[in-house]
Amino acid sequence: MSTVVNPGLEGVVVGETVLSNVEGEVGRLTYRGYDIHDLAEHANFEEVAHLLLFGHLPTHDELGDFNRRLASRRALPSGLLAMLHAVPRDAWPMDVLRTATSAVAHFVPHRPDGSHETSVDTAVDLIAKFPTIVATWDRMRRGLEPIAPDPKLTTAANFLYMRTGEKPIPEAEKALDTYLVLLADHSYNASTFSARVTASTGADIYCAVTAAVATLAGDLHGGAPAKVMTMLEEIGLPEKAEPYVRDLLARHEKIMGMGHREYKIRDPRAAQLEQMAKNLTEKSHTKWYLIARALEDASNKVLQEAKPGKRIYANVEFYTAPTLSSLGIPSDEFTCMFACGRVAGWTAHVLEQFSHNRLIRPQATYVGPEVHPYEPIGKRHGQNGATNGKSAGANN
Amino acid sequence: MSTVVNPGLEGVVVGETVLSNVEGEVGRLTYRGYDIHDLAEHANFEEVAHLLLFGHLPTHDELGDFNRRLASRRALPSGLLAMLHAVPRDAWPMDVLRTATSAVAHFVPHRPDGSHETSVDTAVDLIAKFPTIVATWDRMRRGLEPIAPDPKLTTAANFLYMRTGEKPIPEAEKALDTYLVLLADHSYNASTFSARVTASTGADIYCAVTAAVATLAGDLHGGAPAKVMTMLEEIGLPEKAEPYVRDLLARHEKIMGMGHREYKIRDPRAAQLEQMAKNLTEKSHTKWYLIARALEDASNKVLQEAKPGKRIYANVEFYTAPTLSSLGIPSDEFTCMFACGRVAGWTAHVLEQFSHNRLIRPQATYVGPEVHPYEPIGKRHGQNGATNGKSAGANN
Questions:
Q1: What are phi and psi of A16, to 5 degrees?
Q2: What is the pLDDT of residues A20-33, one digit of tens each?
Q3: Which is nearest to A158 in space by CA: A69, A53, A75, A272?
Q4: Which of A203, A272, A362, B144 could link A207 by a cystine bridge, Cβ 3.0 to 4.6 Å?
Q5: Which residues of B touch A377 (CB under 8 A)?
Q6: Which 162-221 residues of chain A touch chain B by CB within 8 A?
Q7: ipTM of the complex model
Q8: What is the pTM assigned to this prediction?
């Protein structure tokens, strides 16, 4: 049987969605038909989450209701806080977010078969709790008492408040809010696809969103902004960006946060984030934006010399680093902040998957040894003499 | 653009594997070339895990080493036990296994970027700890103190011992051991695919295996055996199987545990499990096997009347129910037992994915509203008048 193996599933269309559209050729991203630039400028995260979950932007009354629903779900149950108190302080925030996401389910009523309702209500539960989990762990690992959410604050303001105990300045709230809007959905990215694969077996929304958090953690997905921050710190000054890039390329290493499989021109979210990083740098007297800008320019200058006419663009991860860093968020929490935005998309995708489900179960081609007889333990040859000695980590 | 949407990825070949081969047409399952019947009869779970991870069945010395490695990793860190003590007693065992799998990572050293080593060592850590987690939660939720693993016992014997404090009879150990062998791997099933999707972003083995546990929970995957048990309990006596099936079909409901997308003839694991269930029924004086057998016969009798010449076969989930039930394992832990076997396959697949990785990132077709202008909040119409009012749960 001749079969084509497609290990990245590139170009394979696995489903339909009404939630967002990535038009890579023209650099456009829309949520349910709204351009991301319009949403980033005019709508807040709660409006966008409402759009994704309910299908339309909320009226004043609907937004008020939705905000009250979120506020009622933000606090963490005391049992969940007790669990987090038992986690070692050096645990990675993304690992803790994954564990806590999974653990939220223990404090929600379940059906006789053990599963939970997959509904707007449980979606709201997860969207509301994500920033609380991240801020709570941020304080616990610093040896500080967690701060309860303030029902009068937005998602973005609450997060900043729960981290520090101080209500944020309007520019900081707006920057984080816009960041969450920009990151809220992106069609079938790897973590969203992961959530849909999990939901496709009939597993509930807590299962699916836990899987999505797990998948977001990788360097090829949500893990990139922290690596961008490491670069910016290593560079230290804008004028050192060019020698840094030349050195990186001489060692055949990648520049983190540049390029994207989907976008052929600049990622529209990068432009929004760049502007925000620029504003915040002025407000917070930090240098990260200036270094990032110098790094993008230097990357393109060096690339032009090697491959004239070719351009590489910053992706959404790139300007995430200076933006979140200027807000005082440590780099090992960047991926958690990505999750705080994307959980709106994940939950909407899980509801969409449930609404017309089909088990996602692809095929693999077997390329291992032919069928052969069993050898009793006394007649085996061990590692060196094995006839089928390919280890799992050394596949042809 | 005309694109074919394949929502189940049926027939799409997403990768190559040397680990196992499902030949559905002839009803054959092999792990690295060994027929599942040979392995079920002659090899134990530790030998099979070794085969999957290292590529060959172990010699006496290798098996001794591997058993010592497993034994050294079985106990749960005290911090993890403290976390489990904070979980409400009515939490679903599969939810707890998912949380605990994620939490194991907090007690393992991580790299500066937060990620953990993905290696045979961390694979062994997970394979060793799964049965301990399940047995520990089994006791905690009954209000009993957990029992520490015994380094002299096998995986199967340890599980039964940690549940009850008594060393199992040889028949019980053998039955559970064979069950774990049969369930250890099954090519790119949904949970294994989920683990590989997660690992494909560069996320570590703890992320990937947590995602796999999340995915296994669904009714269309590892959740089925508990539903089979509910059926067996509802039937109660073998002679009531036929009227039960007729009633089910009259209500257009499915018979859980019958049929499989991959196998055109009987799942080879079902035959092995049936034999085990039969032996155990005699030993344990339970009736579950007899009811299951009557149910499979009745299903085929009724199907023959409706569609002559057609046959439906029991799948691996079907005889899992009487087997595990005869071992005293409650039905809401069945999926956890599936995970205790499959974790050998999951970890081997994650190592294989890491060895030649490519980000798994399929496409979706956008079928939502066209791009349209933004309406300020005062000009929106809300739920009833929305022009793009499809909710996430009501996609076209």
A1: -110, 150
A2: 999 988 999 999 99
A3: A75
A4: A203
A5: 47, 57-60, 63
A6: 187-191, 193-194, 197-204, 206-208, 210-211, 214-221
A7: 0.94
A8: 0.94
